[in-house]
Specification:
By secondary structure, the protein is mainly alpha-helical. Helix content is 80%, strand content 0%. Among the domains are: 95 residues, Tetratricopeptide repeat domain (Serine Threonine Protein Phosphatase 5, Tetratricopeptide repeat, Alpha Horseshoe); 48 residues, no CATH class. Helix 4 runs antiparallel to helix 5 and helix 12 packs antiparallel against helix 13. The N and C termini lie far apart (96 Å).
Length: 252
Amino acid sequence: MKFKILVLLLVSFSMIFCASSQKKLEKQRANDPQYQYNVGLVYLQNDSYEEAMKYLEKSLSLKPDFDLALNALGIIHFINAEFQEAQGYFERCLKVNPEFTEARNYLGSVYQEIGYLDKAEAEFSKAISDETYASRELPLYNLARLYLLKEKDEEALKLVNAALILNDRMVMAINLKGVLLERLGQMKDAIKSYEKALEINPGDVNLSYNLAVAYFKSDRRAEAKSLFEKIYPNVQDEEIKAKIDEYLEVLK
């Protein structure tokens, strides 16, 4: 009987100790900016932006100069097309840590979206110059896209090729290369680029549309017609649908 009582006392003490330890752990986590950031990052990676912001803002309240949290919040606002807010977070991040190249690349993208093209070019160039940046293909691609807007097609093509040396399966860069080659009158090579992009991502409607248009321009009419008809039911953009209607009318 005494043994049973002793066991019950030990179990009760263990439960009290566990509850106390759990409360202590929760309190530590609630005041740990790194833990709050880590949880926010998990939500961000799973596209749960509202939940991510709660934890990231909590992290920042505990450590106002936390560059990782500033960058992550900038990314969420950028994804939500809240460019003014994104700009503020990325600029704060770079003020804390000027070597944070990912934030610099995103800031360049923000500047481009709001029309500050010269500022965007400067940020992308700085990001490209950081040879330790593991994703240098991104600012290379972004600057190429900017040069496309500025009609600097030859310079843009060089940048795209540099991006593809770093990542030869970067679909958006392969597609951009096709666009540039098409503008430069190199239609056969443009078609090869679009076809390569579609091999990697066969379900992409925009890639298929670009390829179909290139087929049409190259007088490969049967292939153009077949591809236009194949993608038509999946096109969401009414403007593109209208263009496909025009192409199909010509191809009759």
